[in-house]
Amino acid sequence: MYDFAHCIGDAIEGVTHSICTLEFQDNRRIYDWTLENLDRFNKPDRPHQYEFSRLNLEYATTSKRKLKLLIDNNYVTDWNDPRMPTISGLRRRGYTPASIRDFSERIGVSKVNSLTDISILESSIRDDLNTNAPRSMAVIEPVKLVIENYPKEKVESISAPNHPQNEEMGNRKIPFSREIFIDKADFQEIAPNNKFKRLAIDKEVRLRNAYVIKATRVEKDKEGNISTIFCTYDPETLGKNPADGRKVKGVIHFVESSKAIKAKFKIYDRLFLDANPSKFEDMSLVINPNSLTIKHGYVEQNLQDAEIQKAYQFEREGYFCRDNSDTDLVFNKTVGLRDTWNQ
Fold it and tell me: How far apart, in Å, are the Cα atoms of 316 and each of 7, 232, 254, 304, 335?
């Protein structure tokens, strides 16, 4: 009955080009035969069927039947789960209409069944957001840092650009004080090698948009984890290099502690462990158990009222947007700053 409904429905609705995927190629003969043998529809401007290959993304499936199984078995939350390759899922994750159009233009139309590299999709959204997303700072795995020679009660306001390549986006004010949060990954007690550009004991780095600091010692909890990093700062290095000419190569981001806003971060990885999960009838065999990781950290004060689904580049972390299904401050990671799929 579908073969009759398809062509007759197209004709009644005035469809000129009936676009189908390759599995309907054999159905085209009955599509044409039906319309040619019905006097009402056997006209020069009657519909014609054209076929193209289905979009098959690596590490994803576009089969609605299989996507529904993922929902029914609680591997994802719903059709708009940011791990889903649905329009609602992509939107909630932070993909823009412009990026999806660009992706479609990049891959083009083909009659050859193939797997499309997901890095092409990520490149499209990365190029779009690099131009349009304002910058901000977020510490996803925080550790406290105390600048011992900074005045105890002082909280100063530092100007930072909203976009380093677009002056029209203006500047924002970020607070700075004696106590800040940095990311745990940006510190090691002993630098592993000379190429290490982050903070270590007796090593200097620049805080993004702020001063040069030097780590001196650490404090640890009962389990041996670093709870506080102690540093000194060079007060003459705000917006300029050290006066004595010494080179400081590393730059790390931070959030000032007294004005920091608590936030939850949802970090997404590929949903499947196999590049072509559709070849498995039971796709649960290749579900990635670590497709979602939740972190608790801090963002700048000016993100307390961040717009729902507005894109931001969290400097040195990636592109994020505020989630649309939670009253708390939750940010979904859209994509990293660079392609890490093949690393």
Answer: 53, 23, 11, 20, 12
Q: Which helix (H) or strand (E) holds 132?
A: helix 118-132
Give the pairing of strands 171-177 and 155-161: antiparallel
Print pLDDT tens along the chain (343 aa).
888 899 999 999 999 999 998 989 999 999 999 999 999 998 888 999 999 998 889 999 988 999 999 999 999 999 999 999 999 999 999 999 999 999 999 999 888 888 899 999 999 999 999 999 999 999 999 999 999 999 999 999 999 999 999 999 999 999 999 999 999 999 999 988 888 999 999 999 999 999 999 999 999 999 999 999 999 999 999 989 998 889 998 999 999 999 999 999 999 999 999 999 988 888 889 999 999 999 999 999 999 989 999 999 999 999 999 998 767 899 999 999 987 655 4
CATH number for 2-52 (one of 3.40.50.1820, 3.40.50.720, 3.40.50.2000, 3.40.50.620): it is: 3.40.50.620
CA distances from 45 to 27, 52, 301 (A): 20, 21, 61
For the full predicted model, state whether its pTM sits above 0.85.
yes
> What class is the 142-253 domain?
mainly beta
Which two tokens mark 229?
């990093």
Tokens of 303: 């993100």
- The yes/no answer on whether domain 261-335 falls in CATH 3.30.43.10 is no
Whether 180 and 256 have beta carbons less than 8 Å apart is answered as: yes
* Region at 198 (left for phi over 0; alpha for psi -120 to 50; beta for the rest): beta
Dist CA 179 CA 189 (whole Å): 19
